[in-house]
Amino acid sequence: MSMIFGVPVAVLSGQLLIGVINGAFYALLSLGLAVIFGLLKIINFAHGAMYMLGAMVTVIMFDAMGVNYWVALFLAPVLVGVFGMLIEYFLLRRIAGQDHIYSLLLTFGAALMIQGILTNIYGVSGLRYSIPDLFKGGVNLGFMFLPYYRAWVIAVALVVCFGTWFMIEKTKLGAYLRAGTEDAQLMQGFGINVPLLISLTYGFGVMLAAFAGVLAAPIYSVTPVMGSHILIVVFAVVVIGGMGSIGGAIITGVLMGVIEGLTKTFYPPASSAVIFLVMVVVLMFRPAGLFGKEA
Amino acid sequence: MNETVKQTDIQKAILEQQQSEHRKKMILNGVLLVLLVLAPLVMYPVFLMKILCFALFAVAFNLLLGYTGLLSFGHAAFLATGGYTTGYLLSNVPWLTTELGILAGTLMATALGFGFALLSIRRQGIYFAMVTLALAQLVFFFFVQSSFTGGEDGMQGIPRGELFGLIDLNDNLNLYYFILAVFLGCYLLVQRTVGSPFGQVLNAIKQNEPRAISLGYNVNRYKILAFVISAALAGLAGSMKAVVFQLASLNDAHWHTSGEVILMTLVGGAGTLLGPVVGATFVVNVEYQLAQGPLRDWVDPILGGIFVLTVIAFRSGIVGEIQKFMRKNLS
């Protein structure tokens, strides 16, 4: 069997694949965070909880009503997105204009509530959800085995990421969004409903998180605490990429997944910490992040 | 002529008011002190010590959030570092007296705080919060991987030892009065710091950082110093906590602990001296009472709810709201 740096190719490429998949989730989640932060200046501490809700809703809908994966892929993000908009409307809106710190604390409290309530109902042991029939099995690429579902996750995550970037940076709606955050009063003067725009943006960011949750349901263990750890990693990803940079969030997300996968191959004990180490190094040399502009 | 008379009158009135306020404060502080000294006669000392440790933790945190305007989301790292260092030394170095062990834990947390500050101080607001959070997570993983921490079980059976080699701290009352003394010392230190010219500069940074810079202050140096003091006191709280419970656990390093100290400070009143103490007392009591009753599984959601409610409805916290009320109605 061929080796690279003393590691079998199959092991290395297997870890790389896991890295790219994790990276796809990091990218989707940090993208949502970056959209919410970049446009609303809200640090959404509830992002992990929304990701978890996406996965939980998928499993619960399947168990209770037999809703299949394809419907859930659409329905779960919409439901969670509406839930997010309710949080925005009833809670976040009340502290608009206050120090941004308060939005962080508010969403932190909300995340504690959501996670705690679901933990009481469903416990912390994982719920089971199987891979949709269409994606069972995989293909042997010669040097490694590629499960179809994982290939699907990577492909769809990339499409969604690129689509979001395109919508915000290149379309008219995106221009409205960016302008609304630049000067809300002026935009309102032009007859644009800025509060609605804000609700929709928050809802959209939350939808992205929930969408990642649905994608994760068949391959990760679905528990009420699944969002709690990944959230901190995603924060680090956003800091590394540069806050508010949407393209930066996507690229850094995938990159960090790969780096994590490589570390797991060559020096496993450091694998859970490596992203934070990268963050420290980046902060020393580029405090605004790799793709951020110096504030 | 007339105007100078008015001026002196006004000055006199202000002085008198300040004196009467000062007197009121002294009376309040005296009453609180007596209560703290007598408390172990009616309450379980270990529970009181837990409150004191968390109160010190929150007081330390408040120096940053309340008086410098920096939200650190990584203070759990200092609490845990203090606890683990003290625990490790007291367990493994037989000749070390307890106060030296606590001192060593505090110093370790201080050094860590300096490192945190250097890396994070150039970022502001929520950026600062996220950087400190990620750094603390790095520390958390270090403790998870290290064998000396005892992993999930934590570091158990830390000996309480003897204070100065003389006073037996296995006696709960002895330990209580030692911790009370340290707590009061730190409280006075923070009070003094906040009132000092240094504290005034911190306040200026909180109010308007660009202005403080334009006045010629080296803002980053002030912020780093404030951060280091805060980290040191948080480490001290962790060290004492390890001695009280004879246990240092991963829980202390988890980011939920960083969230908890924010909650304590916010509920009590950020930017008030007594606020964090009241907040810590409140939160520790709520957790304890809930754990006893039928709602024992609902601690997290209830704390989350308190968090949301505090942020939305009374951001000044318990002490802050009382102060507002008194200012409005009693003067």
A few lines on this structure:
Chain A: It is found in: Cell inner membrane. Chain A is mainly alpha-helical. Helices cover 71% and strands 3% of the residues of chain A.
Q: Would you write up a description of this structure?
A:
The complex is a heterodimer of chains A (about 300) and B (about 325). By secondary structure, chain A is mainly alpha-helical. Helices cover about 70% and strands about 5% of the residues of chain A. Chain A has a single domain, classed as ABC transporter involved in vitamin B12 uptake, BtuC, CATH 1.10.3470. In chain A, the strands form 2 sheets. Chain A has a two-stranded antiparallel ribbon with strand order 1-2. Chain A has a two-stranded antiparallel sheet with strand order 3-4. The longest helix of chain A has about 30 residues, at about 10-40. In chain B, helix 6 (about 170-195) crosses helix 7 (about 195-205). The longest helix of chain B is centred in the first third of the chain and has 41 residues, at about 1-40. Chain B has a domain at about 50-250. The two termini of chain B are about 30 Å apart. Chain B is built from 13 helices and 4 strands. Chain B is mainly α and about 325 residues long. Chain A: Belongs to the binding-protein-dependent transport system permease family. LivHM subfamily. Chain A: It is found in: Cell inner membrane.
What is this structure's SSE topology?
The complex is a heterodimer of chains A (295) and B (331).
Chain A: E1 3-4, E2 7-8, H1 9-40, H2 47-65, H3 69-90, H4 100-122, E3 138-140, E4 145-147, H5 148-170, H6 172-182, H7 184-189, H8 194-216, H9 226-241, H10 246-266, H11 274-285
Antiparallel strand pairs in A: 1-2, 3-4
Helix pairs in contact in A: 1-5, 1-8, 1-9, 1-10, 2-3, 2-4, 2-8, 2-9, 3-8, 5-6, 9-10, 9-11
Chain B: H1 2-42, H2 45-65, H3 76-92, H4 98-120, H5 125-145, E1 155-156, E2 162-163, E3 167-168, H6 172-195, H7 197-207, H8 209-214, H9 219-245, E4 247-248, H10 255-268, H11 275-292, H12 299-313, H13 317-329
Antiparallel strand pairs in B: 1-4, 2-3
